[in-house]
Amino acid sequence: MNNLASPVLVGRTSELRVLIEAMARPPAVVLVEGEAGIGKTRLVHAALDRLVSGDRPVLLGYCHQIREPFPYGPVVEALREVAGRLPAAEVLNPVTGVLRDYLPELSHALPPPPPPLNDPRAERHRLFRAMRALLAAVGPALLVIEDLHWADDGTRDLLRFLADQPPEGLTVVATYRREDLNTPGLPLGRAYRRPPGTTSLVIPLRPLDAPEVNSLACALLDRSALPPAFVARLHEHTAGIPFVVEEVVRSLPDAEGPEALDRAGVPLLLREAMAEQMAGLPAAAVSAAQAAAVLRLPVDERLIAAVSGAPSGLGQALRAGVLREHPGGRYGFRHALAQQAVYDAIPGPDRRLAHERAMAALAAVTPPPLVQLAFHSRQAGDIGAWLRHGRAAADRAAALGDTALAVEVLDGMLADPDLPAPERGPLSLALSRLAATGLSYQRVVRLLRRLLRDDFLAREVRGEARLNLGLMLSNQAGDIPAGRPEVLAAVAELHDRPTLAARGWASLALPEWGTESLATHAEWMARAEALVAITDDPELAAAVLANRASFEMSIGSRDAFAIAATLPVSDPSVAVRRQVARGYCNLHDSATTLGHYTAAEEFGRQGRRLAAETGVLFPAYTVDVATVRRRWLTGRWEGLRDQAIALVELATEAPLIAVDAWLVLGLLALATGEWEEARKCLYSAGMDAPDARFLPIAVAAAGGLVELHLARGALKDAVTEAVQAAARMRRKGVWAWGAGLIPSAVTALAQAGRVQEGAELVTEFADGITGRLAPAAHAALDHARGALAADRRPDEAADFFARAREAYAALPQPYTAARVGESEARARLALGDRSAAAALAETAERFGELGATHDAARCRRALRDLGVESPLPRGRKGNAGALSQREKEVARLVALGRTNREIADVLFLSTRTVETHVATVLRKLGLRSRTEVAPPV
After folding, report:
1. CATH 3.40.50.1370 is held by the domain 654-865
2. Number of neighbouring beta carbons within 10 Å of residue 713
3. Rounded CA gap, 321 and 324, in Å?
4. Per-residue pLDDT tens for 215-259?
5. Which residue of 343, 597, 632, 868 has the smallest Cβ count within 10 Å?
6. What is the 3-state secondary structure (H, E, C) of 601-620?
7. What is the CA radius of gyration of the chain?
8. Residues 6+ apart with CB under 8 A from 69
């Protein structure tokens, strides 16, 4: 059974280290314990591969479940490997002669056989001594016995004899399954007492956790990464057992979605293993196992007895290891594939009857488990009961706020080919209504597109289906070019359904999406509110009110906070509160953009709470990504990059909604001089298609690209980007979003000598934010005015920069405050104010504290040009081998693959200085090549 081992060793670092250390300190006895497929053999062989053995023989023996009579067979099999390693026969202990009959291939190298003793017990003892003497003669040696749980009594006694009195150079390693031992917990048949001077330990192997399953699957598929949803399902599906993971992964088609695991079925080897295990069970145990397979979930003893009809079978199945006890007095299989293997082997008529018994037993439970009842009624062929229970299960889940479960139930029903045609349209609509609030939407989009294309839906429901399709494409997918036309077509189809038409107009009214002007969005909002006025639908009223509040907040209206305060946050209806949750999450995003950080935090808190209460995933995710942006803006950068990456990975199915996280990753890279990384992330934040992306983030990303071009000396590219981004803002008309763009754009225009154009942009910006509650934009206005005056009127520039610095600090935006503080110090230095050097030094310190190493280096370079020393923060004393702050910065850039010239540009150093730092880094880290440098932590 050693073929159960995976060819890739994952997640066994500590166990491998312990095993190798024990093997290297004979005499030793090591027992490796774990269930089938857990990786016992792979661990042992990995240790053998890593052990420097020299002439040390490795003797392998295997115990087999089905064997022919052959006393001590596994050890005898292992001893055959000593051929060629024995000393001369006259040197060997004479007792080894008794092994001639057991090892005929070694008879020429063994002493003559001693005379018989005519006492079976004495003969056995002499045989054991002979084997011990032979092992001592070829020592030091490694004796490995696989699958000790299948060993015969004689082999187990022999191994216990060797373990009790091991030769000086012998290491015994045995693998076994605890659940299959003849005597539970006693792999050697009785308690083992470690002899003095012998290394002795048991190494239990646990299942892999989700990250380890990910590593194993990536290795098997030769991939660097896999979708988190796929990995989570794979871990759940296989219980983290390496062999099962391997078999499942190898049996998969090319697809890597979670649904591919459900289609893959049970691997052949696992089916055979379960069939073999079931074949040895008593009839009652088989019935219990089959009942557990039909019930699918771990359940209590009463349910298994009711479905199996064999009350005594559960205990037998547990003792055989087919079933296991789960927490809470429930019983089931070790993993889903074992359950599926047993289920598939039940004859069809027997399965149907078992499902009928399950329906009867579960119907008596209070409250009835509707999802399970729907499943069992479908498997029993009762279509009417299936539809009844399925619809009730989805309704209950939605009412309780478990939207994900409701979507899963309805999606499963729609995927069933036996679903009656009249049910398809209503269920599709119910599914689309729920999916519009979740993160998982792609299957629903495909379904709705097919239904609309093939005309499966009746006329009266087509408009609603199209509306939901458009909302999913626009929101979850972020695909405005595809979603907006669907919504516009839907509102035309919904002329006789004002309630739904109002929802469509309200969604179109949000100005963050699309290329329409603010005036057009305001007109659409007015249409939605007019339709709400003639309907009596509290959920619709809440939805439109939430969008009105979001609309007003996004443009910095003075009425925004008052309107937000009227949202029915305590309404008893889950549907109403779900709309309020969406509204609060949108308010959080807009308040973050405008610079209302305290209010944004409160909106986010309320939005998360309501989202959790009402089961909406998508709005809560938008809070998470906007919170990352708020952390960037307010200077809380510790661990920020890792958090942003995690959110990007979470949105694998809807990557376009992770734009806030991409923006933050791009701006962090910009602050540390990682130019190419910054460019890639800013494009992912919306600059790949800015007209089709979330515009406030695209505007900020455009400002980042302008800064990137300026930092790299590409002034022409900076101006082009600035002009294009300003044109998009001008077309939309929401200047309150310009805080991250306008100062950079004006800087680029001024440096290019296009001062008049820059002045016109500043005027437009000032007019656009007049009367708006947009503190970040107002701070940016003084910032832009200072940038416009910097080269011509440094005295005015210094004053504008000072006001901007104070405004940014009050928000707070410490990084932007430091940036404008640097500009203020440079303006004052241009006026001959040498005292500004101290402010520049303080600014360099603030940049360093944040982690903006490129900005800090730029300030220190300016100070060096002034002849002012600005030492870097020193490392801890007493660690001569530790890297200094500058060396850490150099090491990070080396690890990113930067050349010395590129590092010099980022850190404002000479190439020769960089060469010296690189050499010091390699020496301190004990490395021979810069390719071996890893980013310092």
Report:
1. no
2. 9
3. 6
4. 887 877 777 778 887 888 778 777 777 877 777 776 665 555 555
5. 868
6. HHHHHHHHHHHHHHCCHHHH
7. 36
8. none
